[in-house]
Amino acid sequence: MKIALVLGTRPEIIKMASLIRECEIQKLDFFIIHSNQHYSENLDKIFFEELNLTTPKYNLQVGSSNHGNQTGKILIGMEEVFLKEKPTHVLTQGDTNTVLACALAASKLDIKVGHVEAGLRSYNRKMPEETNRIVTDHVSDFLFCPTNTQKIILEKEGLDQDKIHIVGNTVVDAVLQNIKIAQKQSKILEILNIQPKEFILATAHRSLNVDNKESLQNLINCLNNAANQLNLPLVYPIHPRTKKMLKNFNINPNINTKKIKLIEPLGYLDFLMLQKHAKIILTDSGGIQEEACVLKTPCITLREETERPETVEVGANIITGININKITKAILAMLNKPPIWENPYGDGTTAKQIIEIIKK
Ligand code: UD1
Ligand code: UDP
User: Fold this and answer.
1) Is residue 236 part of a domain?
2) What is the domain-level CATH number for residue 305?
3) Tally of domains within the chain
4) Per-residue pLDDT reduced to its tens digit, 340-352
5) Ligand 2 proximity of 288 Cβ (cutoff 6 Å)
6) N or C end of the chain, less CB within 10 A?
7) Residue 51 lies in a domain
């Protein structure tokens, strides 16, 4: 058995970290391929350092471009590495262009593909990630679902039951392995001069929300409104896609308040600390909906739907879109109840379970 572990973006580095560690602990024959879809230090290098991850054996250095160009470059690069290294198994996580290209390249070379976080569906085909998820699931040999919800979805799509395994989500491995370290090491509350439970945390980077002037302006209005509603500072570590779009559309993030603190993307430890201590989180991120749920911080999702319905079902998350009235009501609803929901994503042993399944 020889495993290729593939990653390319910030969330993949974080969610593949426990699998890398497990391969190391078990002294398995493995290597890492980084597409370098994300390359800025604060979306890439900082996570390898903080999570103590070994440098990838291969870096495809694809960078940013349009979907076809980026996916194509990754496909070509992955195939070259697979032909040279001849792994028996490839593990890839999530729904980015890196995941799609890696799964296609491996599948055509008859290498077993394990999709970590399989079976998620937003049922919104306007999201590029939805296409990536569907195609990846359908060429995968191991479908590692976070919960029973995804198992049902995959079965309905006609996928073979024997391929489907419910293992939780490696996001819990990552949170549990790092939250104590974050609490010891992070000075982010002092640096930003904010107190626990006296700030809002926000992120947004979905193309549907930020690539269109009207949507981005709406989103910024909503964040201003939330900060004014709770009369609290709103900390917003800004994704480079959104930063670029704010500049292109000439949008000022502080419209009728001075409470928006726009900062550069943070490392994982600082960001975990902010998630743990925020009064409430407003986001369109996938991973942050899950982490907020695990950390018992109320979450509001600035999208029309979610592929993480468990977070809503347990009461940790409300879906509002970028609609001021819905967000105002959702903030009140979330803050009016105690954060005592169950974490649906497992006990932090997902990486171990995945490796055991592959070994068998
Ligand atoms: C990608 C994923 C998305 C995931 C997100 C995680 C796809 C289709 N999208 O979106 O699913 O949620 O990563 O954050 O795979 N940029 C930089 N530095 C970088 C990377 C990007 O400045 O290191 C800027 C560039 O201007 C680039 C833009 O961000 O054009 C978008 O990057 P891209 O990788 O295309 O998509 P993301 O929005 O990051
Ligand atoms: N994250 C981080 N620093 C930040 C913002 C996010 O470390 O400034 C982490 C966050 O804890 C989560 C992941 O990045 O683990 C989510 O990534 P993102 O929102 O970019 O992608 P998505 O999950 O939506 O694909």
Assistant:
1) yes
2) 3.40.50.2000
3) 2
4) 999 999 999 999 9
5) yes
6) C
7) yes
pTM: 0.98
236 lines ligand 2 (CB under 6 A): no
DSSP H or E run through 207: helix 207-210
Tell how far the Cα of 180 is from the centroid of ligand 2, in angstroms.
Answer: 18
Query: Residue 258: is its pLDDT beyond 90?
Result: no
How far from 129 is each of 44, 132, 191, CA to CA, in Å?
20, 5, 35
Rg (CA), the chain: 20
The answer to whether residue 122 is domain-embedded is yes
pLDDT for residue 46: 98
User: 227: domain range?
Assistant: 179-335
Tell whether ligand 1 has an atom less than 6 A from the beta carbon of residue 205: yes
The reply to whether 301 and 185 lie within a common domain is yes
Amino acid identity at 107: S
Q: Is 34 a catalytic residue?
A: no
Please say whether the beta carbons of 322 and 218 come within 8 A: yes
What integer pLDDT is reported at residue 194 of this predicted model? 97
